[in-house]
């Protein structure tokens, strides 16, 4: 089978590519061909014996989606997006990349199918940003979508389009609302949510980290490994079980910052915890206040999606996958 | 004040224009200028002493929205849409008119505001088609939007855009999800929902009407007069009370076909009821099965929106507004 990954150069895209290459197949079908696209040319994966093409493509440019779809991939991952902060700061760019990009892709698939029968599986990364405060303590599968950011609005619109194009038989779509990824590998970045990962990742490498909020802040998490697992499972899912509601809130772990820190203490000791410095940041405190705290994801769980149950597990996954099994410092 | 009505040639557009001219003002501001646009040139209203312009404009054509907005109307009604059946049959046309048209309009307003401060009130006619079966017996204000038609998808997307453009301060939006309008004036048409009006309107004029479903079918109604009332009230509403959830399910009347018929009997007698012929239609029976039956509209009611409480009242309004007070036949 031929898989196209749009947004293959990002953290999720790279991990997904590696995982697909390691698996060698999707739903029993050997992966014979990979097309990896992003705004910068993605790296070719190590150890893949099939045909691989890597290319720079801006999905929001007219014609780019049609060029990607012309080779009729069986499975398409659409992971490309600009993040929440940038979509809020640059209104036009957010709509161009996050909304128009999806529409171009869906239209390219529909038009390819009018030329000759074609209905690929399309796995789309949505976001819990489709929801907006005020929330109940636990957000159920049927909670209404009232996004409070342009990013969340764009993702909610993409979900509606994915449903309608699937209902009309033009594509076989699955949308996955990812929890906040933790522990996100790499350097601390400017994202307001970065501290949830920073306070674990940095101490695990012997470095200091800043905690800008109080320890009773609760949020919703899954490891990078779990996120990749969702995307692999979405490719194999029996989508007749979804009806026309093609997007799912993925399972995750609801935990407080204090619980994160106690897990770090259990796995890496007091020395690691001592590297976390409290530096309250009013801007971040106020933003975090509007974020969801907990979900009930019965629908995704009944469909076989799985996430971690404890932060100890999330930390151990980071040590295995990113630190070669060794706590640093 | 200057009012632009897009979709002014339709049934709602014509009645709204007349009602605005009769009122002479909106929220205490005299109406000095009317711009009436539609794909066909709307008629100029009788009895209006201010400036009036009528023009043909296809909102889905690039540049059309900017031309309409260039005169900086204070209040814009966007009523233009192709209906559910047509949007389902012609996928491209539905998205072009119902989605792209709204985006062009919102973008034209935003860009006009970047040239020089501008934030008009925009009243948009949404639809209960943003909801999809299965429904609870009563659809509450916070029920989730899972449309099962392309038309409903397009309206749900427009609602999300209206929220985001309002939140960003580009426009002051209000969306009204209209109930099924009954008694719809004019001739019977091909709309699957037409019979709800036909079985009252035709007998009130001494003509036969066909009933394609059983008498226990329940649905959600408001008169044309109530619908115009919603749109007039939306223009004056204190939108700070809406937060960023700018669309409302309008109040209405939940009634069965049997209740409609008994109201007809009370107002116009057995002779009128005898003109209704049962001709079951499997296609319509199956479609109607997926339509909403009842709503709780506490939010709109608390904001001052009002509809009829009985079908007797709806029938009397039709007799007053369409039949010069006289039952025909």
Descriptive notes:
2 copies of one chain form a homodimer. Chain A is α/β, with parallel strands linked by helices. The first copy, chain A, has a domain at 2-179 and 221-249: Rossmann fold (3-Layer(aba) Sandwich). Helix content of chain A is 40%, strand content 18%. The first copy, chain A, has 11 helices and 14 strands. The first copy, chain A, has helices spanning 11-23, 64-69, 84-89, 91-115, 150-167, 195-204, 224-236, 257-273, 282-288, 298-302, 311-322; strands at 2-6, 25-26, 29-30, 33-38, 51-56, 75-78, 121-127, 172-178, 180-181, 209-211, 218-222, 247-249, 253-256, 276-278. Chain A has a 7-stranded parallel beta sheet with strand order 5-4-1-6-7-8-12, sandwiched between helices. Chain A has a 3-stranded mixed beta sheet with strand order 9-11-13. In chain A, strand 7 (121-127), helix 5 (150-167) and strand 8 form a beta-alpha-beta unit. In chain A, helix 1 crosses helix 7 (224-236) and helix 4 runs parallel beside helix 5. Chain A is globular and about 60 Å long. Chain A starts with a strand and ends in a 7-residue tail after the last helix. The mean pLDDT of chain A is 96. The A-B interface holds A 91, 110, 132, 142-148, 150, 153, 156-157, 160-161, 163-164, 167-168, 244-245 and B 91, 110, 132, 142-148, 150, 153, 156-157, 160-161, 163-164, 167-168, 244-245.
């Amino acid at each position: 089978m031929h898989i196209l990954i749009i947004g293959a150069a990002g953290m999720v895209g790279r991990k997904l590519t590696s995982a697909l290459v390691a698996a060698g197949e999707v739903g029993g079908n050997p992966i014979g061909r990979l097309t990896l696209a992003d705004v910068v040319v993605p790296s070719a994966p190590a150890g893949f014996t099939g045909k691989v093409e890597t290319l720079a493509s801006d999905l929001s440019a007219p014609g780019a989606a049609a060029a990607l779809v012309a080779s009729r991939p069986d499975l398409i991952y659409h992971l490309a997006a600009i993040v929440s902060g940038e979509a809020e700061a640059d209104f036009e760019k957010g709509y161009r990349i996050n909304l128009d990009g999806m529409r171009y892709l869906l239209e390219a698939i529909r038009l390819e199918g009018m030329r000759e029968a074609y209905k690929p599986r399309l796995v789309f990364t949505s976001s819990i940003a489709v929801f907006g405060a005020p929330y109940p303590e636990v957000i159920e599968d049927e909670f209404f979508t009232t996004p409070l950011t342009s990013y969340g609005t764009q993702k909610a619109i993409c979900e509606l389009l994915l449903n309608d194009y699937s209902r009309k038989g033009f594509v076989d779509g699955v949308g996955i609302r990812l929890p906040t990824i933790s522990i996100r590998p790499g350097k601390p970045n400017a994202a307001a949510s970065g501290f949830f990962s920073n306070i674990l990742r940095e101490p695990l490498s012997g470095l200091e980290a800043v905690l800008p909020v109080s320890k009773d802040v609760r949020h919703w998490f899954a490891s990078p490994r779990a996120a990749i697992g969702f995307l692999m499972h979405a490719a194999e899912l029996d989508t007749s079980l979804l009806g026309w509601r093609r997007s799912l809130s993925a399972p995750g772990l609801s935990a407080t910052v204090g619980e994160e820190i106690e897990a770090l203490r259990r796995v890496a000791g007091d020395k690691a915890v001592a590297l976390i410095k409290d530096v309250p940041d009013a801007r971040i405190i106020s933003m975090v206040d509007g974020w969801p705290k907990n979900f009930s994801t019965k629908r995704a769980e009944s469909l076989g999606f799985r996430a971690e149950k404890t932060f100890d597990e999330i930390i151990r996954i980071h040590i295995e996958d990113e630190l070669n099994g060794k706590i640093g410092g």
